[in-house]
Specification:
The model has no long low-confidence stretch (mean pLDDT 93). The protein has a four-stranded parallel β-sheet, with helices on both faces. A four-stranded parallel β-sheet has the order 3-6-4-5, with helices on both faces. Helix 1 packs parallel to helix 7 and helix 8 packs across helix 9. Helix content is 45%, strand content 17%. It has one domain: putative 2-phosphosulfolactate phosphatase (Alpha-Beta Complex), CATH 3.90.1560. The chain is globular. The longest helix has 19 residues. By secondary structure, it is α/β, with parallel strands linked by helices.
């Protein structure tokens, strides 16, 4: 088995390139999708996926409909429904349905129940019932990066953040994200690519390098003796 490898990359284009090499991709979108994802997991969500909004301008291939079909398949197998979380918070329900249309169409076609909710970051933990549900976060940065990595063939894509969640410190949350990534890398025998969802966001960039530091501290790069 080859030694583990770790890298930090940026934007949906970096996520797609990492996914095309068969790497485990971890998307860091601190003020948006990653923190919503962490809140969902803290609230007992079964799994969290990310998707690009309909009509978003992304420089690499994305397929939100495929994310919707994946969500529908998991929901059908586990007997649950799907909570679709969409930005922006100020959008009307009609605007939110338009942004999430490819995901919603896939769920409707599969006959899977769903609920549409605004993206509220850490507040999602209080705003919605999350226990045992599948969650899809639709957003232009983190959601698009997640979508791009899946479309490119990544064996596993997840979210991580450094933001504080109710009842957990930012340090706790960062370690939890790192451990999920290590588990996925072990399962798929792959390296880890951390993706700062936007290279223009200091939050995303600094958090990505902090996550890399925690992955090292957690022993991901340690060679077996």
């Amino acid at each position: 088995m080859s030694p583990p490898t770790l890298e930090v990359t940026f934007n949906a284009s970096g996520a797609a390139e990492a996914g095309s090499r068969g790497r485990v991709v971890v998307v860091v979108d601190v003020v948006d999708s990653s923190t919503s994802a962490e809140a969902a997991l803290s609230g007992g969500a079964l799994e969290v996926l990310g998707a690009s909004p309909a009509g978003a301008t992304v420089p690499v291939p994305v397929d939100p409909g495929a994310v919707g079909r994946r969500a529908a398949s998991v929901a059908a197998k586990t007997g649950t429904d799907v909570l679709v979380v969409s930005e922006p918070r100020v959008a009307t329900d009609e605007e939110r349905r338009g942004r999430t249309l490819p995901v919603l169409q896939a769920l409707r076609t599969a006959g899977v129940g769903y609920e549409l909710a605004p993206n509220q970051g850490a507040e999602l933990l209080r705003a919605a019932n999350l226990e045992g549900r599948l969650v899809v976060v639709v957003s232009t940065t983190g959601g698009a990066a997640f979508d791009a990595a899946l479309a490119a063939g990544a064996p596993s894509v997840g979210f991580a953040t450094t933001a504080r969640i109710e009842g957990r410190t930012g340090w706790d949350v960062t370690v939890a994200g790192a451990r999920r990534a290590i588990e996925a890398a072990g399962e798929h025998r792959a390296g880890i690519s951390i993706v700062a969802a936007s290279a223009n966001s200091t939050d995303d960039v600094l958090a990505s390098f902090e996550l890399a530091r925690v992955l090292i501290a957690e022993g991901f790069l340690r060679l077996a003796k």
